[in-house]
Each structure stands twice: as structure tokens, then as C-alpha cells.
Amino acid sequence: MDVWLGAETGLLKGVSVSRKQAVNFSSSGREQEVRALCWGGAGETEVLVGQADGIVRTFSTEKGAFTISRRCGEAGEGCFSGLLALGPALATCTEKGAVRVWKEDGDEAVTEVRAGGHVKPSGPHRVATGGKENPLKIWDLENPDKPVFSAKNLRDTYLDLRQPHWVRDMAFLPESDKVVTCTSYHQVHIFDPSSPRRRPVLEAVFGEYPLTALSLPADGLTVAVANTQGQMGATGSVRALQCHPSLPLIASCGLDRFLRIHSLQDRKLQHKVYLKSRLNCLLFSSSDPNTEAPPLKVKEEEEEEDEVWDAMEYVHERGGVHEEEEVNEEDRSVDKEDRSVDKEDESVQEDEVQEDEEDEVQEEDRSVDKEEVQDVAVKTKRKTEAKDQKKRKKRKKGQD
Fold first, then answer.
1. Is residue 112 part of a domain?
2. Which residues lie within the region annotated Disordered (predicted)?
3. Which residues on neighbouring strands pair with residue 116, listed in sequence order?
């Protein structure tokens, strides 16, 4: 699979762009909404899935199934906003600001830091955090009592108004300690921990809408950001953004249920996949999405449903052969009865037609009789009138 995505419906989705195939690998409910994803190791053979109920599940990309499930917090402590593997250990971060480090087989956190916001790694023991009204901080997990770096408040505006903080996403610049962040106030900041100022060494403003995600391309010289209005062909907020580790490609997903892959060179849309669910997070594999990979042998949910239906048909055929024959005989008898009824209906209709024709003939005869009577009356009337005229003429002659 080229891209892995987590959905609001609790589904882990794998997309193979080369084969134009999308597969669902779990069937959880909305209470198991997928909020964070990360690789379980350098080989990309495992995907760690952080759910809204505080469960972290391990998915094997080789077996195509979930292998391990462990609880890393309660649902009331806030959803996961960050997740990362630290060798055999696991670090989680919640929306309420709790950063915890868990041993491989332990159910209790060995390290807990109240930091807030997202979490991004810089090395095996260094992470960056930030959130709403919580400026950027860099922590050493081996000494979590105090942050290694804490960003200073931004300078007030020219009206002496305080500028609020709301870090939405961050990333460490490659081969550097510098950190780039994006905020809900459409700002992009670059911090240098070695600088005594502790304020951004570079600041840029993008658009007018809150920024939601950022990612660094492979060249390390540019920053890709996304906001609540999409502006990458999306019709809704972009919730996740990630550049390919080595190719000039960038993948994005969000509320419009589409996975989009764009080219960073010409900014054209390369691939677009509709995935039916609102998407929260994604992982971009290091493989080339344009080269076809061997298919992953997994049992999809649709195949399981097909097996259930096949089993139901098999039981019916095994136990109901005679029942089917009886049903067929009943159907035949019903067909015969229907045919006889149809014949009776046809005969009745013919009788009705004959009666209607006889009635019409009788009416025609009556009309003919009436016409003949009228003709006879007219002739008799004319004869009487002619006789009366002759009598009148004779009388006149006699008088003369």
C-alpha cells in the first residue's frame, strides 16, 4: 500500500495508487475513531493506530491484520493528537496536553509530561510540543522535568495588543535543531533553539484562514501548509498533510473524504481517490506510488460478508431440496389455476361483447322503425292535403 489513512468511522484504510485499490482493514465504530498514525519502525512493516478511546493498535502491513492492542490512556483524558515510536517504547500525546512514554510491555507510563498540543520527534529522546495558548517547547524525555527550549511570547502588535498562541502543527528541519510551526492565526514560524531571543527567527503569514497542517518536502528548503478552506482542490478543511520521503509528491486528506496526491514541481493533481469517510490522518509510504507493487493478501470485510452469504445458500441447498420441489409443484398448480381463471375471464368478456353488439343492433332497428313511421306519416299527410286541394278546386268551378 502507498498511503495509509485513519477515518472518523474507526476504519484504517490502505490505498494502492498504482493498482487504484482501496481496502478497509478494520470495522470499528465511531467510538474507536482513528486520530493518529505513525510507523512502528524504520522498515514500515507496522502501523501504530491511535484511537479516540485511548487504545493503540499495531497493524502488520505484511500480514494484513492487527496483531497487538494496548491501552495508553482513558477516553476522558482527550483524544490522541500525536503518536510516535521510540524504539521499543511508545510516546503518546493527548489534546489535553499529556505526553506519556510507555514501555513495550508495560501498562503504565514510565514518563509523563504536561506539555500540551501536538508531539513531533527530533531524535530518539527529543520531542516538540505546542497547542492552544501553549507555545512551542522542546523536551528531552530522559530528563522531562524541564523543557530544553521554550518559545517566548510573540511581540505585541503596534497597538500594544498581545498576540495569542495556537500551535497546530510542527516539524524539525532536517539535520538541524530548528523547528517550523504553523498556527491557527495563519502564521508560519521558524524557531532556532540556539538563538538567545527564543522568538521566531523567521515569520510568514499565509492567507486569512487557520492553518491546520504542515509538512516538509524532501529537499528541506520549502514548507507545505494547509488550512481550513482546502485550497488544494479540496472542498473542506485539510486535516492531514504529508510529503513523500524522497519524491516531489505531497498527499492530503480531510473532511471532503478524498485522498489527493499532488506534484510539488508543477502543482498538478496526480491521483484522487474517494474513500467514503471523513479522514483524520495519513501516512505516506516511502515506496514509489507510480510503480505497481505485489498485492497484499488480506481478508477484506466484503469477502467475509460473501462467505456468510455463501454459507447461508449452502445450508438451504443441503436441507431444502424436497421443499424446493414442492414449491415448484405449487407454483405450477398456481399457474394452471391462473390460466383457467384467465380463460373464464376471456369467455365472460366475449359474452359481454356479444350482448353489447346485440344491444347496438336492437337500437339500430328501433331507429329504423322510427324513420319508417315518420315517412308513412309524411306521405299520408301529403295525400290528404292533395285531396283537400282537389275538393276546393271542384267547389270553385261549381260556383262559377
1. yes
2. 289-308, 317-400
3. none
